[in-house]
Amino acid sequence: MSATDTDVEQNGVAGYAPGENRPLAPYAALVATYGTATAVALLLLSRRGHQLPERIGVGDVVLLGVATHKLSRLIAKDKVTSFIRAPFTRFQGPGAPGEVEEEPVGEGARLAIGEMLVCPYCLAQWIACAFTLGLVGAPRLTRLLATVFVAHTVSDFLQVAYRLAEEQQ
To answer: Exposed end of the chain (fewer CB within 10 Å): N or C?
Structure first.
């Protein structure tokens, strides 16, 4: 029985994933890190005199949503950002245009981080939070950076449309 299995049994979740190596304690550490980082950022914003907005406009939600989508895919899938994922993943092969497919490797924290880094859906929560906190603390800079990723997303769609148009000729 591995240390991970023993930890799982002692924490009362022994039947969660029989025969599977699920890094529950490292997942909990990632969630705690996210919560702590968010709380610290909110505390710093408050101490610097930034007040939380009563509401965030639809335009900003769309801007941050599209930017979050693009940045999470860039981190999780882009060829050029593979150096970030390399300590936690193994290359599987090419993916969508400009992207690669990878699988998480290792055990414990390494596996948990690898799973997060190859999952744009998982990264999106962290990125959306950072963009949203940025909107409170540095709205101009945040909108500028988000606009770069939105423009990149628009360009991606145009590239695909152009390629499809060429193929139909």
So the answer is: C
Of the candidates 160, 153, 145, 128, the one whose C-alpha atom is nearest the C-alpha of residue 38 is: 128
SS (H, E, C) 8-54: HHHCCCCCCCCCCCCCHHHHHHHHHHHHHHHHHHHHHHHHCCCCCCC
- Rounded to two decimals, the pTM is 0.86
Strand segments, DSSP code E, in the chain are 89-94, 100-104
Determine contact, residues 101/52, Cβ cutoff 8 Å.
no
One-letter identity of residue 92: Q
pLDDT of 107-130, one tens digit each? 999 999 999 999 999 999 999 999
